[in-house]
Amino acid sequence: MYKVLLADDEQIVIDSLGFILERNFPGQIETFTARSGADAIGACQANKVDIAFMDINMPGLNGIEAIKAIKAFSPTMVIVVLTAFDRFDYAQQAVNLGVFEYLSKPVNRNKIAETMRNAMSAVDALRRKQVSEIQIREKLDSVVNIVESDFIYSLIFPGDKNHDLESYLDFFNIKGSSFYFLSCELPEIDEETRSRVYVTLRDVIASSGPCIIGPFMRNRVVVFVPFTPGPRADSDFEEIQGSVKALLVRLATRLGMNVRIGVSGVEEGFDRSLAAYNDSLNALLHGDGQNSVFFAADFAHRGGAADYPEGSEKKLLDRASAGDFQSVHSLLSELVNWIAANGDSPMDALRWKLSELLALVRNRARELEPSFGGFGTWKETWSEMNALADPREAEAFARTALDECIAVINGHKISRMSPTIAKACEIIQADLASDIPLEEIARQVEISPFYFSKLFKEETGENFIDYLTSARVGRAKELLGDPAKSIKEISAETGYSDPNYFSKIFKKTVGLTPTEFRERQ
């Protein structure tokens, strides 16, 4: 439907134009009329007119003055000047104002119909452009969300990302290196409302000031907040305290549910990002109560630098539930190293802690696959763990057991994937030795690379490169069990033409070189 204004000081002209247009475009137009320039302006404002046929010689404001006013609030309106004044200066002014057509009276009905048809085509083109711009904005919003998530992951998951931090900082126009983390927890979140709640949560947090917002990780969202310190630390703390407490009130009000926020201290330098994230998590873990803000500084008296890294343990459980082998291996090494370096009986503590972690992750796997790892398996696991006397052996044993659990979790995820992503995963697993660009996989599953990248991360919990790396390292671990295969052969069979680069990736993921891993089998 096209909204059309007919503006002329002669009613007979308006009636004739209306008759011609209704006859040639039945059911396609809705007409409005005006007998003066002022009336034409009012009709355009009130009815969002698409196309206007305007006379120049009208009482009060003439047509040229009316067109100027209309173009000021509706610059894309298609305007056709229809006048008996065949003067060059009028025509020149009309062209300068961006009118679509300038017709001199009298005009035959065929010319009117042709001009209207062309004007409708111009409106259609404009509408398509507007739709395209909206779609582009939506895609850009999606890209920003993905980049924000990648930036957050690169800061808080050691070894999980290896992007150039400077690129992220340029993208988000972050100039300084001071920041703090918020860990926002929604204890009552459920799967049905998760997407809606996340959109609202993002809107509220983003409106509070510059920040970068991560994705949901279980029931938590991590927020990176750039901060410029003042001359006094106590004033900085009061400023942060006031803004975060105000944010809590807005979130609880808009979401209609309990919210808890853990706040780290202000850190200088991005090498402290993991420590800041852990501080915000520890504040949540130590804090009691709902609809509350917990500051890491309030719990500093509970220990010093040698405190057990509870945040890393929690992350390990989160990443195991997400099926992320790479991060779990890195976090496991961090926990084993800490326990081995602290306490009078590190092996006793290590056996207890690793058994606890295995129990939690295995229970998660059993929730998805009840036949996995029953009591008999547990009894055997504990006996083997109890016989270990070296921290590295304990780590290797725990890593293998955790990998079994994560494989079950990932298997369940694959079974619930859309056919498109399940097919993509099959293609990847079937041809790990070849170069597998994302664009080629997207082509094979017949969707755009942009949408494939977004959908793949949503359903697998990993971006394409991280998933491919995990799959290749997993295959390499299987092949290393065959002593007849050389490291060079295994490197080639898992898609790495350079054995040195393969060894580097393997060690970063597993914590051991391929040779060390083989020797411990």
Structure report:
- The protein has three domains: 2-130, Response regulator (Rossmann fold); 174-307, Reverse transcriptase/Diguanylate cyclase domain (Alpha-Beta Plaits, 2-Layer Sandwich); 313-519, Homeodomain-like (Arc Repressor Mutant, subunit A), CATH 1.10.10.60.
- Mean pLDDT is 83; it is low at 158-163 and 301-305.
- The longest helix is centred in the N-terminal third of the chain and has 48 residues, at 109-156.
- Helices cover 60% and strands 11% of the residues.
- It has helices spanning 11-24, 37-47, 63-73, 88-96, 109-156, 165-171, 194-206, 233-255, 273-286, 310-321, 325-341, 346-368, 375-387, 391-415, 419-430, 438-444, 449-460, 464-479, 487-493, 499-510, 514-519, and strands at residues 2-7, 29-34, 51-54, 78-83, 101-104, 178-185, 212-217, 220-226, 260-263, 267-268, 292-295.
- 32% of the residues are buried.
- By secondary structure, the protein is α/β, with parallel strands linked by helices.
- α1 crosses α5.
- Strands 6, 7, 8, 9, 10 and 11 form a six-stranded mixed β-sheet that branches.
- It is built from 21 helices and eleven strands.
Count of DSSP E strands?
A: 11
- CATH top level of the largest domain? Mainly Alpha
Spatial separation of the terminal alpha carbons: 73 Å
Which overall shape is indicated by the principal axes computed on the Cα atoms? elongated
